[in-house]
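Chapter review: from sequence to fold.
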Amino acid sequence: MQPPIDQPRWRGINHLALITDDMDATVRFYHGVLGARLVATIGTPDFRHYFFEIGEANTIAFFEYAGTPLATFAKPAGTPDPRAVQFDHVSFNVADERALELLRKRLDGFGCEVTTIVDHGFIRSVYFTDPNGIALEASCWVEDATGRDADPRDPSLFSDSDPVPAVRELMEAGELSETPKTQLV
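The token string follows.
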């Protein structure tokens, strides 16, 4: 199935909007610990919305709502939880394994729990959490799958032995026969 217009050329994440109940702790962690520059803020009587740079033209942003107590929620990355319908964790991209190790040491130096480097084959990662209980990961590509044609028959990058029907279509026909329609909520 051919798309009706040209496919977008994604440039990363403009911003991923998450929620915090303590913007001060969030600024101290993202800007102070992770070194993600605070690049913009919005403040109204009802909410704050702060943006942290995580790459060229890529930010992670947080809302803090005034006078609205939030129930806490935390879960480890990659662990099933019936409450986590749409979100598991955020993974930040770093340049290489040296940068990953330096970040791991930085987190540890700031007293933040962090895993050792986990080898996932085509990426390597460390896992940690922010002060809001949001599961975070930092990853570097061992074999960079971005910025080039994807071949779903390449076992070094596509290792699901029982792929969903859409991936089977891509493997066999090189395109999808149908796509879902969505509605605003």
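Two observations follow directly from the output. The domain at 14-67 is CATH 3.10.180.10 (2,3-Dihydroxybiphenyl 1,2-Dioxygenase; domain 1). The chain has a mean pLDDT of 85.
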